[in-house]
Structures are given as structure tokens and as C-alpha cells.
Design a protein that fits this description.
The complex is a heterodimer. By secondary structure, chain A is α/β, with parallel strands linked by helices. Chain A has two domains: 103 residues, Urease, subunit C, domain 1, CATH 2.30.40; 308 residues, TIM Barrel (Alpha-Beta Barrel). Chain A has 14 helices and 18 strands. Chain B starts with 11 loop residues before the first helix and ends in a 25-residue tail after the last helix. In chain B, strand 3, helix 4 and strand 4 form a beta-alpha-beta unit. By secondary structure, chain B is α/β, with parallel strands linked by helices. In chain B, the strands form two sheets. Chain B has a five-stranded parallel β-sheet, with helices on one face. The longest helix of chain B has 20 residues. Chain B folds into two domains: 155 residues, Rossmann fold; 146 residues, Rossmann fold. The chains are: A alpha/beta, B alpha/beta. The interface between A and B is medium-sized, with 21 and 25 residues.
Chain lengths: 441, 320
């Protein structure tokens, strides 16, 4: 992250909610020099030298952490770069993101990692962590120099975008992990079963004549890799869970003591393959695909019972021309950083499906699987705060995007709940332009 | 009707209007001069990104019989071959101010995109494995001439349903007209979940005798390489429609081109129950009717020919 001045603000009378830290109530949130200096009775905080923000009726949450984004740098800066991706994250209330390594060229050497970290220090308004590939060039054949890569500062490893086809290679990586650490994040998909599939296999794919990706393409690979992780006592993180069977496999692996964590994406929690009837690849084509309503319900249940400990956007920007083509030809992926909270608040919290506290907990839950500190509002900790207006209504895309790309799965939707201010890594990373700041001190 | 993108978009009344219109063109087709002036001065673009004999030739002849100016583009040798995107190609063609674009494309949803991008009425002449509505309409037309009504009739669609846009459009069309549809084929070639479209699914021809109409699909040889079925011989042994399996009162249809000796025996193709030749003949008049309904029947799409709306098609050379 860019170095800058620590935030000095007081959020007056905010409704503070940080379930993981057991914090709930109306407080003045005092942020001094980038740290949470205290949670005080409303109106009681000393203002001296602090910017005063009227936050009565607004909610202060620990800012969110996204363990799965694509910043497209190097190689595809026409879709996104570190600066725009980080801005997009800040606009969504995120105080930390982990960038995937499937760039062009991929992030496969210590020098690659160092260069990206240097670039993030220049350009990013929120802290950005980088994963490196498990296999060199994501070719699935030889391991990268995992030890040196970790020394260069990589948070973990992933061939995301592609599964690790060879069980032998993943086993070697898990063995090597004992030396160098670093969670291995896995895109779970059996390429033989997925074939040329472009959407979930089921009644909708049958009706549309689109080749299907069966649920078992995901769950069989998770089962294989959970068994390997258990055998080697390794630590794995399953990315973008999409299917009922997958939730069941992860739940069973956890019960058996495997060190396995997993994530679900907002679009999989809010949408089903019924959306595909529009044949709109810009909003609805991604991998893993949107699945059936029963799968969506299984993901929600996994979120509730803790099988799924975090929400990750799999923010995947693509240029317009890569999406303005027939469905089967379009690029896979949607953007999600700017809408994650608002969409889940609208679709799951306001509808009574999950509690607000659970949403906040899961949106900040992506740090722990990578052995990073969980964002918290506990006094004394680094300030990572998302100030949100839960009643604000807005139409996605109407005022453009911070991201360089426009393939938001929420494009055109009216959402309720909006991030007004994000404090990330102790600095003010985002302010909604139209948000009035109240009386300055 | 603004576009013809899929059978799903049509009501039963709209389907019947097209079939009635086709009937009137069939009557014109029996005259010496088969051309009518309906679309004089208007341009129809035929844009084919996949090889096609029947569909492209019948659409093009239909446009000519209606006196439209025709621009015919095949992807081989066109700028699509040079990497131009569909969107840019459509933008280029829009400069000719076409009244209609007839498009065949290897991917689902292509026709819908073209409809979103321009002003022209769009006819889906086959998009990937998704829909082929003009085929379904000509099949309905062919059947209506033999059976009067499809209400309560049993139609079996047999073969590679997974890769067939014809199967999908016809499944919807047959049901829209009141028929009961059964799809039959090897499990790997029947898409999982297709029963949600309202059809029955079976993997055996044992009960084929209950069908009033047997609609066989083309079995592509490359499917053998992908292990959908172990061999052509194995497929034919289980699913070929031959004179032994086809009863004398059952009608046989096929969208063409036929692989004789694979999905159909030669005898079955040439049998008196076979409507295959009639299907081809129906293609022309039904496609004339589609262009007419889109461009000349007035209503939603006012254009230069809007004044023709209530006219019966009149052959050139006769007073209109």
C-alpha cells in the first residue's frame, strides 16, 4: 500500500458491529494516527485535532478482506491494474485483498513477487497481498521455488484459473509447504468432467443447448485434494465453492480434522443458473458457474454453520469486447468488489436469510485462512473500518465504476446499503464523493 | 413480431399466423410467376457463419421471391475470417440499412445479440445448439398438412438431442401445438434435466410403436470420437429407425442431411411414411412467411411496406 498519513477521524455516534470481537453498540469511534484509539460513549469523544464525521444512523464495521481478486497485472492492464483494482476494493469497503497469480506472465518467481509488491507500494490505496503460482507458468508440471517466493513476500500459492490436474504435483507442494508455509488456494475442477462446459449442467443448460459443467467436476477434485491435505497434514483453501456436493465434502473434511478452509462468492450466494436464460455473458458467465437454487441454499447453509468461513468476490475484470460476443465465446468472470457488501445486504440480510452480523463476520473472514490478522474494531488495533449507510439506495454502474472494467454481475441493479468511507491499513482509502462530511472540527 | 429468435418467444396464435401465411405462399408457388413485390426496395442480409445448404438457400430464395434486395455473406472469405468481431460486422452491415438480417452462427445467443445491436429485424437461422426456429415452423407446417392438428398427438424425437438445436426448438414447438413429446437416445446424448422442458425421456425404442410421428436427428460421426457412444454400429443397433421399427401408420421426419444407414435406414428414408422431401419444400414457403410477418405485416415494425399490411401477396405483373 502507498505510504500516507494515518487517519485521524472520529465517527460520531456510529452503530458499531464487530461480532468476532464481541463489539455491538452505538459509539464514537476514535481513530488516531491510523489506529482505533477508542470506542466511546456517543458525543463523549474529545475531538481535538480529529476530523469529525457525523455517523449517527450509520454503521461501522471492521473493513472487509477479500482473499480472491484478479488485478490483471502484469499483462492485462487494459482490464485492471493495481491502482484501479485497489480503488475498486476500497469502494467496496475492503481493507485488504489477495491478488491471484494467473497474470501474463504468471507470478512464478521471487522477482515477480518483489516487482508486484513494489508496484503496490506505489499505486495501491489498500494493502494488497500477492499469491504466486504452485506450478511454474501454471503449466502443472514443476513446482515453483516456493521457499524463495515466500521469502520474497508471497502470502501463499495458487494456480487459480486452472486446477492442479496432477495429484502428484499437489502432493509435492503440500510436502514443500512444511518447509516454507503459505496456504495453497485451490481452483477445484476436473477438466475432463468440465470439458467444454460454459455453465452449470442441469435443466437450464439443457434448455439453452449450452454445454454443462457438472457439480461433481468441482466436488470430486475437492475430495481428492482434501484427502491429500489430510495425508500430508497440509493447509489448503478451497476457492469459490459453488455446489451442494462441494459443501458436503468440505464439511466432512473439516470434521475429519483436515486443515481446510473455503470461500463462497457473492454471485453464487445471490444468483442461480436461471439468470443464464438471458444469455448475457457480461453479468452471468463465470467459472465456477452459477448453479441451481439447491446449491445456492447449500452455500448459505455453509455460511451459517461455518463450513464456509469467508466470502470472496473472485473479482475478475474483463474488457467490453471480451464480453460483447455470444455466450460461449465470452471470457469467464465478473467484477464484484464494489458491490459485494451491498448485494449481499440487499439479497440476504434485508430478506431475512442471514443476520447482518454473520455477513460482516464472513466478509472479514478471508484473512485468517492465510494466517493474516482479521480486521477488527477492537481498541488498539490498526484502523480498518467500513462506514456504511444501510438504507442508501443506489443503482450499480450509474455513476461508473472504480474498476477499469464494467462486467459487474450487479450492473443495472438497484441495491440497498452503501459504503461511505473505508479506512484501510490505518489510512482513509475511500470516501463516497457525494457523502457530506458533516461539521469539520 | 419484431424478431424471430426462438420458438419460445412465439404464442400459439403467432405460430398459426405464420403457418397460415405460408399456406398462402404455397398457393402463389403453384402459379407460373412465383414472385411477389412485397419487399421491393428493401434489403435482406443473409449472414452465415456455418455451412448450410437447405436453410441458407431457402431463406435466400424466399427473400428473392418477395422481391427484396439480397446481400449474402458466408463466413469463409468474409471479414469474419480476418478476425472481425460479430459486433463490428453487424455495424458494417447496418450501413446498408437492412430490413432484416438472417443469421446462422455456431454459438448460442448470436442472433439475440444482433437484435440488440441494430435496427433490423433478426431471424435466427440456427445459433449454436440453442434454437432453430424456422426449422421448427417448417416442420409444423409439414405436419399440419398431414395431420390437421397436433393436439394429443405423440411425437418421438430420437437421437443426439444433446447437440441438436432442432431438437430444442421442435420440442417447444410441438408442445406449443398440443403434442406430447418423448425424447429418446443414448443417455450421454440426452441432456441432463431436459425433462424440465415437459417431455418424457427414454433410452429405448421399445415403445416407439406408440408414436404418431418419429422425428429422427442427425448423428454426427465425430461424436463417436468423444465416447458419447462406443461406435456407429452400436448406435445403429439400438437407435436406428428402420422399416422393422417404423410402423405403417407412423410418419417419419428428419431435418437433413440424413446419414443413411446410421440414424435412418435407406428404406425408411424412401418409405411412403417419410416426409423428408416435403420438409424441404415447406422450408421455402415458411421462410417467405417468416420474412413477410416480420417485414410486411404491419403492426410493431412500421416500414416502407407498412401500407401493404392487409394485402394478399400478389404476383408481379398482376394488378395489386
Amino acid at each position: 500500500m502507498r505510504s500516507g498519513e494515518g487517519a485521524d477521524v472520529v465517527l460520531r455516534g456510529a452503530t458499531v458491529l464487530d461480532p468476532a470481537a464481541g463489539i455491538e453498540g452505538v459509539h464514537d469511534v476514535v481513530i488516531r494516527d491510523g489506529r482505533i484509539a477508542g470506542l466511546e460513549a456517543p458525543g463523549a469523544a474529545e475531538v481535538g485535532g480529529l476530523e469529525e464525521i457525523e455517523a449517527c444512523g450509520l454503521h461501522a464495521f471492521p473493513a472487509f478482506f477479500d482473499p480472491h481478486v484478479h488485478l490483471r497485472t502484469p499483462g492485462h492492464e487494459h482490464k485492471e491494474d493495481i491502482e484501479t483494482g485497489a480503488r475498486s476494493a476500497a469502494a467496496g469497503g475492503f481493507c485488504g485483498i489477495l491478488a491471484m497469480a494467473n497474470t501474463d506472465p504468471s507470478v512464478s518467481t521471487p522477482a515477480d513477487v518483489e516487482a508486484l509488491r513494489e508496484a503496490a507500494r506505489e499505486a495501491a490505496c489498500v494493502p494488497v497481498g500477492f499469491l504466486a503460482t504452485v506450478s511454474r507458468g501454471m503449466e502443472g508440471e514443476e513446482l515453483t521455488e516456493m521457499g524463495a517466493i515466500r521469502d520474497a513476500g508471497a502470502i501463499g500459492f495458487s494456480d487459480d484459473g486452472l486446477p492442479i490436474r496432477s495429484a502428484r504435483l499437489l502432493r509435492r507442494a503440500l510436502q514443500y509447504q512444511r518447509l516454507c508455509g503459505g496456504t495453497i488456494a485451490l481452483h477445484e475442477e476436473d477438466p475432463d468432467l468440465s470439458g467444454d462446459g460454459v455453465m452449470h449442467e442441469g435443466p437450464v443448460s439443457a434448455a439453452l443447448g449450452l454445454a454443462g459443467i457438472p457439480s461433481v467436476s468441482e466436488s470430486t477434485m475437492i475430495a481428492r485434494d482434501a484427502a491429500l491435505a489430510g495425508y500430508e497434514e497440509g493447509q489448503i483453501h478451497v476457492q469459490h465453492l459453488s455446489a451442494t456436493e462441494s459443501v458436503e465434502v468440505v464439511r466432512a473434511a473439516k470434521a475429519a480434522g483436515v486443515r481446510i478452509s473455503c470461500e463462497a462468492s457473492p454471485h453464487h450466494l445471490c444468483l442461480t443458473d436461471e439468470e443464464l436464460r438471458s444469455l448475457d455473458p457480461r453479468r452471468f458467465k463465470m467459472n465456477p458457474p452459477l448453479r441451481a437454487e439447491a446449491d445456492r441454499q447449500a452455500l448459505i447453509e455453509g455460511l451459517r454453520d461455518g463450513t464456509i468461513e469467508c466470502i470472496a468476490t473472485d473479482h475478475a475484470p474483463h474488457a467490453a469486447e471480451e464480453k460483447e460476443v455470444p455466450f460461449e465465446q465470452a471470457a469467464m468472470g465478473v467484477t464484484g468488489l464494489e458491490t459485494a457488501f451491498a448485494a449481499l445486504h440487499t439479497d440476504l440480510v434485508l430478506t431475512g436469510v442471514i443476520e447482518l452480523g454473520l455477513l460482516v463476520e464472513r466478509l472479514a473472514g478471508g484473512a485468517a485462512p492465510f494466517d493474516l490478522p482479521r480486521p477488527t474494531l477492537a481498541p488498539g488495533s490498526e484502523a480498518n473500518v467500513a462506514l456504511c449507510d444501510l438504507s442508501a439506495e443506489w443503482t450499480v454502474g450509474e455513476e461508473g465504476y472504480e474498476s477499469r472494467s464494467q462486467n459487474s454481475w450487479c450492473a443495472g441493479r438497484k441495491l440497498t446499503g452503501r459504503v461511505l468511507i473505508t479506512v484501510a491499513g490505518g489510512q482513509v482509502a475511500y470516501r463516497l464523493r457525494s457523502f457530506s462530511l458533516g461539521v469539520a472540527a | 413480431m419484431r424478431h424471430l429468435l426462438g420458438i419460445d418467444d412465439l404464442s400459439r396464435e403467432e405460430i398459426e399466423a405464420i403457418l397460415d401465411r405460408a399456406e398462402s405462399f404455397a398457393e402463389v408457388g403453384r402459379r407460373d410467376i412465383k414472385k411477389v413485390p412485397t419487399l421491393r426496395g428493401r434489403t435482406v442480409v443473409s449472414l452465415f457463419y456455418e455451412s448450410s445448404t437447405r436453410t441458407s438457400s431457402s431463406f435466400e430464395l424466399a427473400a428473392k421471391r418477395l422481391s427484396a434486395d439480397l446481400v449474402s455473406i458466408k463466413s469463409a472469405g468474409s471479414s469474419a475470417d480476418k478476425g472481425e468481431s460479430l459486433k463490428d460486422t453487424v455495424a458494417t452491415l447496418t450501413a446498408y440499412d437492412p430490413a432484416a438480417i438472417v443469421i446462422r452462427h455456431p454459438y448460442a445467443g448470436a442472433a439475440q445479440l444482433v437484435a440488440e445491436w441494430g435496427e433490423a429485424a433478426v431471424v435466427n437461422a440456427g445459433d449454436g445448439k440453442h434454437e432453430h426456429p424456422s426449422q421448427a415452423l417448417l416442420d409444423l407446417f409439414t405436419l399440419r398438412r398431414r395431420l390437421d392438428s397436433l393436439e394429443g398427438r405423440r411425437i418421438w424425437i430420437v437421437g443426439d438431442v444433446l447437440h441438436s438445436r432442432v431438437a430444442r426448438s421442435n420440442l417447444v414447438a410441438f408442445q406449443a401445438m398440443g403434442a406430447e413429446v418423448t425424447v429418446c437416445g443414448p443417455p450421454a446424448l440426452i441432456p441432463r434435466g431436459i425433462e424440465a422442458m415437459g417431455c418424457e425421456v427414454t433410452h429405448s425404442l421399445e415403445r416407439l410403436g406408440e408414436a404418431d410421428v418419429v422425428y429422427a436427428l442427425r448423428m454426427q460421426r465425430e461424436r463417436m470420437n468423444e465416447s458419447f457412444v462406443p461406435s456407429i454400429r452400436e448406435y445403429a443397433a439400438h437407435f436406428q429407425i428402420d422399416s422393422r421399427r417404423l410402423g405403417p401408420r407412423q410418419l417419419l421426419m428428419h431435418p437433413g442431411p440424413v446419414n443413411r444407414g446410421v440414424e435412418l435406414s435407406g428404406e425408411a428414408v424412401d418409405s411412403p411414411q417419410s416426409l423428408i422431401a416435403e420438409q424441404v419444400a415447406s422450408g421455402l414457403v415458411v421462410r417467405m412467411a417468416i420474412l413477410y410477418e416480420l417485414l410486411a405485416s404491419g403492426g410493431e415494425h412500421p416500414g416502407p411496406a407498412a401500407g401493404d399490411s392487409e394485402q394478399r401477396p400478389t404476383p408481379i405483373g398482376q394488378p395489386a
